[in-house]
Amino acid sequence: MAEAIDYDAFRREVTEFALTRCPPEFRRLVAESRKLSRKVWAPWQRILFEHGWGAPGWPKEYGGTGWDHRQRHIFDEVMAECDCPPQYHHGLRHIGPVIIAFGSEEQKRRFLPGILDGSVWWCQGYSEPGAGSDLASLRTTARREGDEYVVEGQKTWTSHAHEADWMYTLVRTSKEAKKQQGISLLLIPLDTPGITIRPIATIDGWHHVNEVFLDNVRVPVANRVGEEGQGWTYGKFLLDRERLGGANVAPILKNLGRTRDLVAAELNGEADRLKREMLDQRLLAAEAELLGAQALGQEAIAAVMDGRPLGLLPSVLKLSTSHAMQRVSDVALDVVGERLAPRFRRVDAGGPNAEAPGIEWVQNYLYGRVRTIYGGSSEVQKNVIARQLFGF
Ligand SMILES: Cc1cc2nc3c(=O)[nH]c(=O)nc-3n(C[C@H](O)[C@H](O)[C@H](O)COP(=O)(O)OP(=O)(O)OC[C@H]3O[C@@H](n4cnc5c(N)ncnc54)[C@H](O)[C@@H]3O)c2cc1C
């Protein structure tokens, strides 16, 4: 019989690890709500990996921890409580599980170790100009020439492409009557000749998205995941995993607590009482939604671990957590916006900000607009939910 797990002891173990092994500088950046980069994420992933905790969501045979879903939840909670950086998602939560589910043995041997130890960085080449919500309209082509594909086209909104080594990419390998057919999933090293990466400036002043141009880019056929023409199936599997990012509600709840402290600190006079109470009410409503999402998130993690169908869970979680996050940052902006928003200038990841302390609240409000767009907009999630519920 399996030994009973002592969850309290496990929580103490994770807390001890977080407080002693996560560099204080990283925890300070997270506590100050700074934007992070590979310079922080990669060494933190390495530390987790060396401790055997690199991939809590993967099967044990590929380097997973073997935790049950309650341990996964405790791990997420403690990491957020201790202000540890979140793990970078593109490898661990997106392409890693796709390679595990659909990749060849050779691809598993080649790609999974670099994701686990944080040495190889991935980005997502799905969207194109003209193919966002309607992703199946993508026009980047991959023409087969012997053992290679020749890729031509353009990707856009590619988060972190400028700091990534590889891009998992949906391309059109043939033209079929149904546009979801004839799509394939290629793994493309970003140092291949013919690739140009250009930054896109965003309202939050943080460089995180890019355009990626592919001009006569030669990619070995061995870098195709699964079968040619079946990329839509793998791509959708990956999108479900991406949308399950909302299953980890702990960092959002932590941010909500911080926002509550901000309200209390900034609106502490009698003259502010009415405004303070109204903002507290709004935080309470967001908290209620997040606690509901937390319960659903635990169900989603259990479903992934048991190999059960996810149904509506990815879309419901994406929809509810992204709006709750925005509602929390709306409250923060209502507190500091009048004073700080006019002073908003570019704030780089982790950079000094002596000029306007607290400006991160404004930056996070601006950055947070993206939550209801990337990974499929809220309108698209509502369509997915309606289709599954009502069958149209
Ligand atoms: C900051 C940021 C980071 C991103 N990172 C990545 C990345 O790393 N990799 C990647 O591949 N992509 C990324 N994206 C792209 C993202 O997935 C797309 O922006 C998103 O899918 C929406 O597509 P679109 O921008 O083309 O807008 P459109 O699809 O043109 O949509 C415009 C508006 O119309 C609405 N709409 C569209 N179709 C429907 C419909 N059928 N019913 C109702 N309403 C509809 C949408 O909700 C939206 O409000 C990122 C986007 C942003 C902004």
Explain what the structure shows.
By secondary structure, this protein is of the alpha+beta class. The protein has three domains: 7-87, no CATH class; 122-230, Butyryl-CoA Dehydrogenase, subunit A, domain 2, CATH 2.40.110.10; 249-390, Butyryl-CoA Dehydrogenase, subunit A, domain 3 (Up-down Bundle), CATH 1.20.140. The protein has twelve helices and eight strands. The protein has helices spanning 7-21, 24-31, 38-50, 69-81, 89-102, 105-116, 231-243, 250-266, 273-306, 313-340, 359-368, 378-390; strands at 122-125, 141-145, 148-155, 166-172, 183-189, 195-200, 209-220, 224-225. A four-stranded mixed beta sheet has the order 1-4-5-8. Strand 6 and strand 7 (209-220) form a beta hairpin. The longest helix is centred in the last third of the chain and has 34 residues, at 273-306. The mean pLDDT is 94. Flavin-adenine dinucleotide is lined by residues 123-127, 132-133, 157-159, 209, 370, 373-374, 376-377, 379-380, 383. Flavin-adenine dinucleotide binds next to strand 1 and helix 12.
